[in-house]
Amino acid sequence: MHAITTILDLPEEEFLNPGNRSCSGCSLGIAYRVALKALGKDTLLVVPPSCLTVLQGLFPIAATKLPSLNVTFASTAAAATGLLGALKAQHKTGIKVVAWAGDGGTSDIGIQALSGAAERGDDFLFICYDNEGYMNTGAQRSGTTPIGALTATTPFKGKLQPKKDVPAIMSAHGISYVATCSAAYPLDIYDKVLKAVTFTGVKYLHLHIPCPPGWGFNPRLSVKIGKLAVKTGLYELYEVEHGQFRLTGASQKLADKKNLVPVEDYFKTQARFRNLGPDQINEIQQLITTRWERYFQTMENGEEG
Questions:
Q1: CATH superfamily of 7-300
Q2: Full-prediction pTM beyond 0.85?
Q3: How many CA atoms lie within 13 A of 9 on its CB side?
Q4: Which of 46, 108, 116, 284 sits 20 to 30 Å CA-CA off 11?
């Protein structure tokens, strides 16, 4: 892996125009801007209905300078496979195909096409930006909505099921590279995108994207809340490279220092968790503590995760 990027190392060229239709404080714009810098101009994007469609805008006015194919909800990975076929038929090389879908278009509606592409070994990068709900249509629950979160379709007791672990599902396909990132750590996104495109076959990145209107917090707190998710150990930054797991960035430092922030500090920043009681919070904290104790032990033994 190349040296860790600093903000001074980022390319000056922008592929995201200033001004877009995203909500105030939307952290998707942070992740999108820096990832496009890593991808560069020789890139074709595939985007299903989502908040990213809103951010990009509608033809002929678009926030993205790169070619972008808007497709149906379920067909993101299938359309990426089609683009690969078209490029091959035209004998065009050196062009990256990148699918960008939300958690609904990845963990739920789009997972069949993504699973099929992973099994076939199609050579594209799939990026899921996870704002933990169908935020573009009014904050309904998705497969990646956390347990206890209030949404438009879980309005009273919150979601009863735990968050679907999509990176683990993709790792189980045996693909070459899987990584998790957070919009609160943009340089980590940049480095992982750069690394991902060096592998062949389907590569998968999962981005944690704080959402002010859907989660219920002040838009100015997006980055702070994203960092809290990592510092509490609720959301981990890691890579799985050819089946080998390792914590990265802020999560690796957290494992070194063993100083998890209480998860209650994260929950109390968001209105969607207002119905979580002490017993539920304690149960979630215990699950986090148990998981991270294994990481601490691994670090002490000097092993990979």
A1: Thiamin diphosphate (ThDP)-binding fold, Pyr/PP domains (3.40.50.970)
A2: yes
A3: 12
A4: 46
